[in-house]
Design brief:
globular; 11 helices; alpha/beta; single chain; six-stranded mixed sheet
């Protein structure tokens, strides 16, 4: 078993080692105030090129790569997060031999396939859930999952203490406040959650349909903004361009400017990663909306509402449970966003009338 402990991120450790984001040329589409927040919270819009990561045009897909290298340079007690070679060092893509069959014959070649592995989520030493996911942006994933599932109420309540690569997957170890543990144990999931299943492992109907407070945001999104954000989403889908097997979730401000993208083999995992990235950067998403490259199912609306985001726009169809739940929590559901048109299925007041 290979173990890689997350570098110490306590305030004392950061002061001791002088942790701060290294200077980077700003050539992303992230707006200036967002960039300042990302820097302040130790999240870079740039990938860790020193580890061989591919450039991401919108947001740092790998998360804390070069920040961790910088942090550990002067502290023997802080271990690097992603030492190579390893599953995590592949950045979500594996190259395998394949055979292509055509009308004229067969030929061998190498193909890129997306990594899908069990990711164990461990709180205070107790395994809560195992999700099938792409092992990238794991701190974002842990944070977003913890928030969207109601395990913590604020990103500051969660501490990711270690990310361990195991023989057959990845384990994320976390600590939460003592007062959160009792409720956490009551909700413990005993089953594996598949990459296509965002609510697997829950042991009751009540837990599956856990109620949420209505989204309080007053934002209304213009149709042009929805079309603009969805049109920009493919530019952030690096893993999908390589493998053709990945969903994406992006966050855009009310004017349609896309500022963050996360990818995963599971659509709900991609949304958790996105929510976690925003939370770790201290960004309040109430003034924007989510675009996804998938259908819009119940768990997608549930996670969107839990994050306080007023609208979700999907390239494909919604489900009946999604539409009904969206009405109860005040989340606008827009689907079939393609070819210059879309359909509003829930809370039409979230979409501003064309001028």
């Amino acid at each position: 078993m290979l173990s890689r402990n997350v570098a110490c991120r306590s305030a004392a450790c950061r002061r001791k080692i002088g942790l701060r984001a290294p200077a980077r040329p700003w050539r992303t589409t992230v707006v200036p105030d967002i960039m300042l927040q990302l820097r302040r919270h130790g999240v870079s819009p740039w990938p860790d090129r020193s580890a061989g990561a591919r450039a991401h045009p919108v947001f740092n897909r790998q998360g804390l790569g070069h920040i961790m290298d910088h942090a550990t340079a002067g502290a023997a007690t802080c271990a690097p997060l992603f030492p190579a070679p390893s599953l995590l060092a592949r950045h979500g893509v594996r190259h395998v031999p394949a055979t292509v069959c055509t009308a004229t014959g067969m030929a061998g070649r190498e193909e890129a396939v997306i990594d899908e592995v069990p990711v164990g989520l461990v709180y205070a030493g107790d395994l809560f859930a195992v999700m099938l996911a792409t092992p990238t942006d794991l701190e974002d994933f842990a944070t977003g999952f913890s928030l969207s599932e109601g395990i913590v109420g604020d990103a500051g309540e969660l501490a990711v203490t270690a990310i361990d690569e195991l023989a057959d997957g990845v384990r994320i170890r976390m600590e939460v406040p003592v007062e959160r543990l009792a409720a956490l144990l009551r909700r413990k999931r005993n089953l594996m959650g598949g990459s296509g299943c965002g609510r697997c492992g829950t042991d009751s109907f009540a837990e599956t349909l856990r109620p949420l407070d209505p989204v309080r945001s007053t934002a209304r999104i213009a149709p042009d903004a929805i079309r603009r954000a969805m049109a920009a989403l493919p530019s952030g889908q690096m893993l999908n361009r390589q493998t053709g097997a990945v969903h994406a979730a992006g966050f855009a401000w009310a004017d349609g400017e896309l500022v963050a993208v996360r990818e995963d083999v599971g659509r709900h995992n991609a949304l958790d990663k996105l929510i976690g990235a925003l939370a770790r950067a201290g960004i309040d998403p109430a003034g924007g909306f989510v675009v996804v490259s998938s259908r819009c199912s119940f768990e997608m609306v549930h996670k969107t509402a839990a994050a306080g985001i007023p609208l979700i726009a999907a390239i494909s169809a919604p489900t009946s449970l999604c539409v009904g739940f969206a009405e109860t929590v005040g989340v606008g559901v827009v689907a079939y966003v393609r070819d210059g048109r879309f359909t509003v299925y829930a809370v039409p007041s979230r979409v501003a009338a064309p001028v």
